[in-house]
C-alpha cells in the first residue's frame, strides 16, 4: 500500500467540468476519495483513478437538449471557446469552437461538454498557456496603478469600520456612488489618469460623497483649504 504522505493533493484541480473541492476520506480498499463540483452545480465523489475518464457529473449532460446548445455559446471548455452550434445529420450536434492557439474546429457537442475534448489537438507550449491564463485573470490591467490605489482606499474609508479613517468618512455618512462602488473601470472612465503624482483624490463638497460630479484630482494645499473645520471633526469624533 502506498504511503498517504506521498499522495498528490488534487484540491483545486480541474478535470473537464469537474473542480476538486477537497479530500473526502477513503473507500473500503484504501483509495483516496475526492469531493468534486461539476459546472452545473452538482457535487459528486470520485477516486483519483476515475479522473482519467470522468469529466463531469454525468447528470447535466443528459439534461441538455439539442435545441439548447445555443445557450452555451461563448462558454469555455478546457482550451476551447464555443462560438456557435451547428446541427448535423441524425440530430447530432456539432459545436464550432476556437482553440486557445487560434484554430477553429468542429467537434461533437457531448464530447466538448463532458470534457472528452478540451483542445484542437495542438501542442500549445507552456508559455502560451501561461499567458492565456494570465489574460483570463486580468480584468482591467491597472491593479498596480496609483488610480487603482486611490479607488481602493476611497472604498476602504467609506465601507470598512476597521479602517482608521472610517470615522471621518463612512462613519459620518460619506458614501461612494453606485457607479463606482463595485467598478474600478467606471471610476477610471470618469476620473482618468492622475495628472501628477503629487495630486490625490478630493471631494469638492466635503459634506457629500464620492461621485463624478463631486470629485477631482487636487494638490495637498487645495485639500487642506477644503477640509472641514477642526471643531466639526472634534464633535464627530
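Q: What amino acid sequence fits the structure above?
A:
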Amino acid at each position: 500500500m502506498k504511503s498517504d504522505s506521498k499522495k498528490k493533493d488534487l484540491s483545486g484541480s480541474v478535470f473537464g467540468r469537474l473542480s476538486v473541492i477537497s479530500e473526502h476520506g477513503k473507500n473500503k480498499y484504501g483509495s483516496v476519495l475526492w469531493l468534486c463540483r461539476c459546472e452545473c452545480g452538482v457535487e459528486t465523489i470520485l477516486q483519483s483513478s476515475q479522473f482519467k475518464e470522468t469529466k463531469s457529473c454525468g447528470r447535466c449532460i443528459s439534461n441538455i437538449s439539442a435545441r439548447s446548445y445555443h445557450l452555451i455559446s461563448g462558454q469555455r471548455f478546457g482550451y476551447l471557446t464555443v462560438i456557435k452550434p451547428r446541427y448535423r445529420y441524425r440530430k447530432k450536434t456539432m459545436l464550432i469552437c476556437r482553440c486557445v492557439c487560434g484554430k477553429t474546429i468542429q467537434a461533437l457537442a457531448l464530447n466538448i461538454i463532458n470534457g472528452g475534448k478540451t483542445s484542437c489537438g495542438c501542442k500549445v507550449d507552456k508559455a502560451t498557456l501561461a499567458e492565456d491564463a494570465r489574460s483570463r485573470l486580468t480584468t482591467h490591467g491597472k491593479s498596480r496603478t496609483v488610480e487603482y490605489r486611490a479607488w481602493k482606499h476611497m472604498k476602504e474609508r467609506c465601507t470598512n469600520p476597521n479602517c482608521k479613517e472610517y470615522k471621518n468618512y463612512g462613519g459620518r455618512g460619506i458614501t461612494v456612488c453606485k457607479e463606482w462602488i463595485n467598478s474600478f473601470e467606471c471610476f477610471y472612465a470618469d476620473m482618468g489618469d492622475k495628472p501628477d503624482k503629487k495630486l490625490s483624490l478630493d471631494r469638492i463638497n466635503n459634506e457629500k460623497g464620492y461621485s463624478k460630479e463631486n470629485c477631482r484630482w487636487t494638490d495637498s494645499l487645495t485639500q487642506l483649504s477644503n477640509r472641514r473645520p477642526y471643531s466639526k471633526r472634534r464633535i464627530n469624533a
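Q: And what stands out in the fold?
A: Helices lie at 59-62, 109-113, 126-137, 146-159, 178-181, 184-191, 220-225, 230-236.
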